[in-house]
Amino acid sequence: MKGSRKGPTPPTLLAWLDDASPDWQPAYPFDRKDVRDEVRSCLFVEQRGLCVYCGRRLDLARPGETYHIEHFRPQRHYNALSTTYSNLFLSCGQKDEHGKPSQTCGAKKADWFDEDQHVHPTYPNCTQRFRLMLNGSIEPTIDGDGGALNMIKHLRLDHPELVKDRSDVLMLIDGGYLDESDFWDAGEQLAQSYAHLVFQHVGRLLP
């Protein structure tokens, strides 16, 4: 699980929230493009350009397809948090690369949430709750960790496509063909897919 280094609420979002009155209450989706754009940009930077759950690189070209704004605590059950920045992240899109409904991450999680058994996407704490094998499989670092098991199940972090992708990356690292510097652009402050697990594999934290 990738996670995010969460920052403060963006100024444009704060100003929009402060406009609340008896005649108008802020609600999601945001009704102003400048608010949407700033929230998306801040989330993208905080997550180093990666999906908050699986860690694949996000493509912002097609909102709603290649990525979406994810409510960690879902709107259906936590409507009061629908515009709360600390509850917002970027997840893989609602469609896979073939245009079919996505089978992983936020799209798969949908309205599921267990207040007692979950892993909050705070980097690096969340990443450290999971153990990645060279064959790409994933399991809790501590046996019986119910929160980690729930996230694997409901985000489908054990999906065959993710397993193969992770295995391919780790084999390239172990084979000496790539190292962690190939997954991090210090100038842009953005990462390549699965950079979080590459850095974990070599005993470092993703910047």
Percent of residues in helices comes to: 25-40%
- Rounded mean pLDDT is 95
How many helices?
Answer: 6
Q: What number of domains?
A: 1
Distance between the termini: 16 Å
Pick out its properties:
single chain; 207 residues; two-stranded antiparallel ribbon
Summarize the SSE layout with pairings:
Blueprint: H1 11-18, H2 33-46, E1 67-71, E2 88-92, H3 105-109, E3 130-132, E4 138-140, H4 146-155, H5 160-174, E5 184-185, E6 190-191, H6 195-201
Antiparallel strand pairs: 1-2, 3-4, 5-6
Q: In words, what does this structure look like?
A:
The chain has about 210 residues and is α+β, with helices and mostly antiparallel strands. It has one domain (about 10-200). Helix content is about 30%, strand content about 10%. It has 6 helices and 6 strands; from the N terminus they run H-H-E-E-H-E-E-H-H-E-E-H. The strands form 3 sheets. It has a two-stranded antiparallel sheet with strand order 1-2. The protein has a two-stranded antiparallel sheet with strand order 3-4. Strand 3 and strand 4 (about 140) form a beta hairpin. The longest helix has 15 residues, at about 160-175. It is globular. The two termini are about 15 Å apart.
Structure summary:
With 207 residues, the chain is α+β, with helices and mostly antiparallel strands.
